[in-house]
Design a protein that fits this description.
2 domains; disordered C terminus; 2% strand; 71% helix; 266 residues
Length: 266
């Protein structure tokens, strides 16, 4: 029972907002890899959604990371025959890294031609405000993706986060739920056997021992069941929070005596 209690305590603490601090950087790296992987696999619409979410969820990206995300989004938009929006992405990449240049060996001439035109025209467009990406179709696709992820998450906790590109978070939630359900099944089976032994006991001493074992198995089953419920609800609440894209997810930077700023993200 103590082992079950410690497991539940660790699980709740790990899923709390503070427990995600150590995973923030690794999750960002996973998101960037997912972006590159989606483009390599020809999932160009998914690239557009991932790039929009990355730029919105991570306002503290480095200039090189901003340029990387916008370049990948621009490549995908060109493949979708949406060159005007691709030019906007290339302009944002150049805003982040003005000296940016594409490798003629690794980048297709189809992409380089559009990028070079945007870069050459920048001096004449310095006073022109950037044209925002059309939000209507992107918002509709994003809403549809979240709806699909929500239904999926109701059936399998963590699958919604996985579908939205939060692979590490989804895997952790799914693994935690699977562990809790497995413990619940094991403890419920042991409780059934110990109950049968308790009902079959006839001697006072054997009745006492059988009852103690049955009571321990019963408590362990309750803890496992509560843990499974906590993880399930945490997975649903986390997905709702991702859907809201609320600024409350990120705490304001705090400066200590040494002048070090830090940020908490979940």
């Amino acid at each position: 029972m103590i082992r079950q209690f410690l497991f539940t305590t660790f699980l709740i603490a790990f899923l709390a907002p503070g427990g995600a601090c150590a995973l923030a950087q690794s999750e960002l790296s996973a998101q960037l890899l997912s972006l590159d992987s989606a483009f390599a696999n020809g999932q160009y619409e998914q690239v557009e959604l991932l790039s929009l979410r990355l730029l919105q969820d991570y306002p503290d990206l480095t200039p090189d990371e901003v340029a990387r995300v916008n370049l990948t989004a621009g490549y995908a938009l060109i493949m979708l025959n949406r060159e005007a929006e691709a030019r906007w992405c290339f302009a944002r990449a150049l805003d982040a890294v003005p000296e940016l240049a594409l490798d003629p060996v690794q980048v297709s001439p189809k992409f380089r031609m559009v990028f070079d035109e945007v870069k050459a025209a920048r001096p004449a467009q310095t006073e022109t405000p950037p044209r925002p990406l059309p939000a209507d179709t992107s918002a509709q696709r994003t809403s549809s993706l979240f709806a699909s992820a929500m239904w999926s998450n109701l059936v399998v906790p963590g699958s919604g986060q996985w579908k939205l590109g939060y692979r590490l978070r989804g895997a952790l939630l799914f693994g935690a739920e699977a562990a809790c359900v497995t413990l619940l099944i094991i403890n419920a089976t042991e409780m059934r056997d110990s109950r049968a032994d308790y009902l079959a006991a006839t001697e006072p001493e054997s009745i006492r021992r059988a009852y103690e074992r049955y009571n321990q198995d019963y408590q362990a089953s309750c803890i496992a069941g509560i843990s499974a419920a906590v993880v399930y609800l945490a997975a649903q609440a986390d997905l709702v929070r991702l859907n809201g894209q609320s600024s409350a997810v990120t705490m304001l930077p705090m400066t200590g005596a040494a002048g070090i700023s830090f940020r908490v993200r979940w």
